[in-house]
Amino acid sequence: MFEALNKVIDFLESVAMVAFMSIATIITTIQVVYRYGFNGSLFWAEEVVIYSIICMSFVGASMGVRHGVHISVDVLNAFVSPAINRWLHIIAAVLGIAFAGFLVYYGFHLYFNTLGRGQLTAALRLPMAWFYLPIGISGILLILRYLWVIHEAWTKPPVTLAEELAAEKDKLV
Fold first, then answer.
1. Which of 46, 54, 94, 118 gives a 20 to 30 Å CA spacing to 24?
2. Per the structure, how many domains does the chain have?
């Protein structure tokens, strides 16, 4: 189950990241051409680019958990046994789930409150709630990713930091 769900989420995140990156890049390029080539500008371009980058950040948070590239302090991992190291990963994932739970709760709370007020964006005049929706969705993705981390930490045998570094070195060569 985890494998299939993981592949679907990987695909959706990749598509979303490419879409948001493409939107930001293309609109920024068009805005530069308009500004310097035609001495004009698109009044909505900056807003679209900002919202695209914000959405990329929330999707990227989930991708960062999946690939294990978030900033971390590994000093303690170097000094403890592999069994304790496993528990450190599980505790960190549980704390991540707690944070993601706050994102889900407050993200959807913000979405529904803003939707009820009918607030619109400044330039595009679209419902502002749409641009708050990625907060809650990102929380759900983060919870799924952290559950995957717990599953991996629990089912795979613990390795020492030296073994982990050797495996990373072998990947690079």
1. 118
2. 1
